[in-house]
Amino acid sequence: MSRVLRPNNPFTTKAIYDFDKFYGRYNELSDCCDQLRFSGEGIDYIFVAGEQRVGKTSFNNIIGKIASGDHRFFTSDLSFFTCETSFKQTRTLDECLGQIINSILAKDVKLLKRFNIDSITAGVGVSAKAPILGVEFTIKPEFTFNLTPKNIELIDKFVEIVKYIFNQRKYIDKTGILIIVDDVDEFISKNDFAGFIKILDEMLVRSGIHNVKLMVTGTILSYEKMIADETAISDMKLIEINKFSYPRICHYLIEILNKEKLQVSDLVLEMIFNITEGLMYDVQDIFTQLLKMKKDNTDIVTIMDFETALKTVQETRKRAFKVIIENNLDFNHKDLLLKLMKQDEPATLMQLQSEFPKEQKKFVINYLNKLITLDFAIKDADKYCIKNKLIKDCLNELKSLYEGEGIHDKLC
Ligand SMILES: Nc1ncnc2c1ncn2[C@@H]1O[C@H](COP(=O)(O)OP(=O)(O)OP(=O)(O)O)[C@@H](O)[C@H]1O
Ligand SMILES: [Mg+2]
After folding, report:
1. Do 50 and 240 meet the contact criterion of CB atoms below 8 Å apart?
2. Which of 76, 154, 181, 398 is exposed most, by the fewest CB atoms within 10 A?
3. For the chain, which domains are there?
4. What residues pair up with 136 in beta bridges, in sequence order?
């Protein structure tokens, strides 16, 4: 039997940029917009916290649009100059700083010409390329986020540029700068984030821009680290992005599938929620496959459709997990992973520590954080567990890779 292929798959595992595809999160969006509406003196900080693959980048993208004046979601007048950067792409703080500066400059090609520069990256050195500025900004390994004379020079040049931008007529209506820094997790512990903030603060405030919002995303762990660092930020607005509830997932799927002239039974909806536990990435992944693979011409999503799609997703995940386990976990991590797999309920740190020998107890938190970073585990209200059933099922099938490697077994 031949069939018509769906020209557009409405599901995606990529971060969302369009309002039309972005579902829900109204409270979080308006909470964030309220912060943007309030015009502060220096830098105001917003931290968007959520577990991996929950929807932080999509949230950022929509906020970016609203902040630059898109009125479809929010009626108040917001007109920020927005710059986005991500640690996943930049890897170091100075690269990130360079990208922020570039993103401000890149909005204006003429401006680059006027200052006779191609682009700027953080760090200071002399350049023939930029005679007007007299300095070239290149990444130097020794770059530190302190107010050294050279860094002050960098700041002064930046201030000069930003002032120029803001004096231009076309930017006159801009109410401030919104800087979005995505995925700080990996870097927050390794880098001098407080120093980074200090430099950024100096640059932006000295540019005479009085309404600067720095929106950072990461997990709740990196939020805790950031506010625990006394030299960094004391007052930070926290916006939490959580997994979707069962009614929200049902509503979302029914709405989208209806547009595709497809129906879905309550049983399939229940199955999808049970396996994903409301993590939109997994919902999207399974349904992307499902629509790709739907072989019959019926207008119903059957249990078989769901199970076939799930199987494909699981096979792909298992292949990826195998590599992650083999390359990233030592026997302590594996031991902890096994213990987490055995838990029926989320466990506290103390409960998990009690299963380790005395000399290992203080390291359990590090092992946990590693499993969280690798996206196998989550911390929810001070308890730890495997991320969701989909991941648990995949890990279960890979047990031979981490079973019997624990310290106890080694000692026996
Ligand atoms: N509001 C939403 N409506 C519909 N789908 C969403 C929404 N938010 C996220 N998703 C879907 O969830 C998945 C993950 O989204 P996103 O990349 O924004 O998450 P993230 O938290 O930034 O992930 P990571 O931890 O990998 O950076 C994508 O498939 C995206 O399509
Ligand atoms: Mg992201």
Report:
1. yes
2. 76
3. 26-240 (3.40.50.300), 329-411 (1.10.10.10)
4. 125
Report which protein residue has its CA nearest ligand 1's atom 9. 55
**DSSP symbol at 280:** H
> In whole angstroms, what is the distance from residue 302 CA to residue 265 CA?
8
User: Is the minimum distance from the CB of 57 to ligand 1 under 6 angstroms?
Assistant: yes
**C-alpha to C-alpha distance for 166 and 16, rounded to whole angstroms:** 30
Ligand 2 centroid to Cα of residue 328, in Å, is: 21
Q: What is the pLDDT of residues 284-310, one digit of tens each?
A: 999 999 998 876 667 889 999 999 999
Point out the residues of the chain with pLDDT beneath 50. Answer: 1-2, 116-143, 407, 409-412
Atom 29, ligand 1: residue with shortest CA distance: 13
Q: Provide the 3-class DSSP secondary structure of residue 300.
A: strand
Please say whether the beta carbons of 233 and 179 come within 8 A.
Answer: no
What is the structure's pLDDT at 215? 92
Q: Estimate to the nearest angstrom the gap between the alpha carbon of 363 and the chain centroid.
A: 26
Q: Using the mean position of ligand 2's atoms as its centre, give its distance from the Cα of residue 217 in Å.
A: 8
d(CA 38, CA 213): 10
What's the pLDDT tens digit per position in 369-398?
A: 999 989 999 998 889 999 999 999 999 999
* Secondary structure (DSSP) of 197-224: HHHHHHHHHHTT---EEEEEEE-HHHHH
The per-residue b/e assignment along 399-408, b for 16 or more CB within 10 angstroms, e otherwise, is: eebbeebbbe
Q: Ligand 1 test: best mutation among 53, 249, 283, most atoms within 8 Å of CB?
A: 53
